[in-house]
Amino acid sequence: MEKRVRTRFAPSPTLPLHMGGVRTALYSYLFAKKNSGDFILRIEDTDQNRFVQGAEQYIIDALNWCSIVPDEGIGKGGKFEPYRQSERKPIYRQYAEQLIESGHAYFAFDTAEELEQLRKNAETEKRTFSYDASVRSLLNNSLNLNPDETAKRIAEGKHYVIRLKVEAGEEISFTDLIRGKVVFKSDVIDDKVLLKSDGMPTYHLAHIVDDVLMEITHAIRGEEWLPSAPAHILIYKYLGWENKMPYYAHLPLLLKPDGNGKLSKRDGDRLGFPVFPLQWKDPSSGEISTGYREKGYYAEAFVNMLALLGWNPGTEQEVFSLDELTQLFSFEHIHKAGAKFNPEKTKWFNEQWLQRMNDVEIANRLSTQIANSRKDLTYFIKAVALLKPRVQFENEMLEKGKYLFEAPENYDEQVISKKWKPDLKPFFNSLVAAFASLNDFANSNIETTFKETTAANNLKPGEVLQLLRVFISGQGTVLIYFQCLNYWAEMKWLLD
Ligand code: GLU
Question: pTM (2 decimals)?
Answer without folding.
Answer: 0.90
